[in-house]
Amino acid sequence: MPELRRDPIVGRWVIISTERGVRPRDFIITPPPQTSPVSLCPFCPGQELLTPKEILAYRPQGSEPNSPGWSVRVVPNKFPALHVEGELGREGLGMYDRMNGVGAHEVIIETPRHQETLAEMPVKQIEDLLWTYRDRLLDLKKDPRFRYILIFKNRGAAAGATLEHTHSQLIALPVVPTAAEQEMEGCRQHYEDKERCLYCDIVRQELADGARIVAENPEFVTLTPYAPRFPFEMWILPKRHAAYYEESQKAQFEFMAPILSETLRRMDRVLARPAYNMMLHTSPLHESSGPFYHWHVEIIPKLTQVAGFEWGTGFYINPVSPEESAKFLREAEL
Amino acid sequence: MPELRRDPIVGRWVIISTERGVRPRDFIITPPPQTSPVSLCPFCPGQELLTPKEILAYRPQGSEPNSPGWSVRVVPNKFPALHVEGELGREGLGMYDRMNGVGAHEVIIETPRHQETLAEMPVKQIEDLLWTYRDRLLDLKKDPRFRYILIFKNRGAAAGATLEHTHSQLIALPVVPTAAEQEMEGCRQHYEDKERCLYCDIVRQELADGARIVAENPEFVTLTPYAPRFPFEMWILPKRHAAYYEESQKAQFEFMAPILSETLRRMDRVLARPAYNMMLHTSPLHESSGPFYHWHVEIIPKLTQVAGFEWGTGFYINPVSPEESAKFLREAEL
């Protein structure tokens, strides 16, 4: 069973997940280049039995579970960072706190087509993926052990991906992580001061200013944030206030799919298909953050190294201003 | 002039430093492998004019500034993230906050010998380096514009190093960064509750337990922390309570040098000379953190990728427990 441990100084939780049995030599021997020939890819149709049994799949022709014929497919991670069975088992060890590593770790296979990227797939396929995210959030929200769910995507080995076939991941946690706490706290304070949502204020100021806008449609905007940690960091925000991704309506998904597609295509065009991470930030579960929190997507291309200065301070040095990043992205020919 | 910008949500500052004129293509074209032949190394003796003029050098034979004959040499960074001249110029831009990028960015060349690593150098040379850190902290502390100083080291391209010749860096900041604030806050709360230093309590519990101890001498201990973000993460702590590195006495430096050397040699042995980051965490300037803060060094070998889950949550998944890491390090044959 993996273990959750809390750093007694800054309160940050970590997952100690030793089940793969990693030894020092695994870090020394350079891993072979990441290639997954279609014939061996566990995410390709026909290889359904190479993954754990599916949790959910969209099957337009009504085919059997764990067989081909799906358009999006969700399976448990074969090497989960957390286990879905078990009690939380909180305990103190002297001055330290620990919990059993109870949670969910799922893989969302975005398409049956091995070569397709999220940027290149039909907008309708992206819309299905967005509905899948919602379905999994609504289902896992019923489990009272979970307090936060992160849906994220790693593309490229430099961004932490270990399989090439395009996929997203979901991790449900029994605690609200510090990064989410900090965003919630900033939003709560702003709301207490002004009775307005902080992200709504940002969207208004950015749309009025224009210098950091990358893409826009009636329901969504993509922008480079005012104080980005990384070059070409982007946020996609709904223009209308909404704290919970999973409460989005059909119209939202219809407008979210094309702007996500456009944003990724602009990034791929300007930076020649970089490795990147994408994270869906939505409200913690069972918290009434409706008036003050605002869900959004963050995208960070993996272009620079995080080094001693960043680890030591939490400060980031960014060699490209967000105004310049936005200009390159906005002017890219698609 | 670089610019400091504050994220309005979580309060994190970033440095927008565009003076190297980085363009998208700089991220696309793969940089050539990092090699610096001795003949072109700006940190080697005889090439002193390739760096900005020195700020400090230890010259045992009393040679002239900016000429050979030094054992440790401190110079301004040629491409500084912050500029030492100028006013802070704080201002608001709508809902955003900015400051001029005023600060210091220095390079500490640890040895005149191009091939030598910090782990391999004579202990006396490491002691000189520790004194150099102190001298620079004491000098920069006089500048009332600065509120925090980080001394750090990146070894290897994967850890962000751009030059091979072994060196440390120093950045003085006009604000206390969030990572330091969080550590201070945790320590302050513990002190208010218990009238004891949190790190002193950790040192006591770890020495009694023993499972996470890597190395020890009369004044210092190296341990793997209870909740490490990364495999083989290590902290070096003074056993006696001390908030300010720069107030250390001769005996502390005499015991710090050999344990730093031993710690790095153990890491190099177990992990075959990995890329790593090392950070000196000391008290913010002009704050009376004497009773509750405890300076220390953090070392993180660069073995895993930080990916979407970590960026999205601030949580870390660590595939090696600190007890196992400590055992490998402790039992390494030196």
From TrEMBL, chains A, B:
Residues at which Zn(2+) binds: C41, C44, H114, H165
Cofactor(s) listed: Zn(2+)
Alphabetized SUPFAM superfamilies for the sequence: HIT-like
Query: GO biological process annotations for this chain's record?
Result: galactose metabolic process
Q: Which domain of life is it from?
A: Bacteria
Keyword Transit peptide present in the record's keywords: the answer is no
Keyword RNA-binding appears in the UniProt entry: no
Q: Which GO molecular function entries does the Swiss-Prot or TrEMBL record give?
A: UDP-glucose:hexose-1-phosphate uridylyltransferase activity; zinc ion binding
- State the similarity comment: Belongs to the galactose-1-phosphate uridylyltransferase type 1 family.
The cross-references to NCBIfam families, in alphabetical order and at most eight, read: galT_1
Domain Galactose-1-phosphate uridyl transferase N-terminal: where?
Answer: 4-177
- In this protein, the active site sits at H167
EC number(s) given by UniProt:
2.7.7.12
Annotated coiled-coil positions are none
**Note describing how the cofactor binds:** Binds 1 zinc ion per subunit.
PANTHER family, per this entry?
A: ADP-GLUCOSE PHOSPHORYLASE (PTHR42763), UDP-GLUCOSE--HEXOSE-1-PHOSPHATE URIDYLYLTRANSFERASE (PTHR42763:SF1)
Q: EC class of this enzyme? A: transferase
InterPro entries on file? ADP-glucose_phosphorylase, GalP_UDPtransf1, GalP_Utransf_C, GalP_Utransf_N, HIT-like_sf
Ranked from the top, the taxonomy reads: Bacteria, Pseudomonadati, Nitrospirota, Nitrospiria, Nitrospirales
Indicate what this protein is called per its UniProt record: Galactose-1-phosphate uridylyltransferase
Q: Which residue numbers delimit the Galactose-1-phosphate uridyl transferase C-terminal domain? A: 191-298
Pfam entry (one): GalP_UDP_transf
> What UniProt keywords are attached to this protein's entry?
Carbohydrate metabolism, Metal-binding, Nucleotidyltransferase, Transferase, Zinc
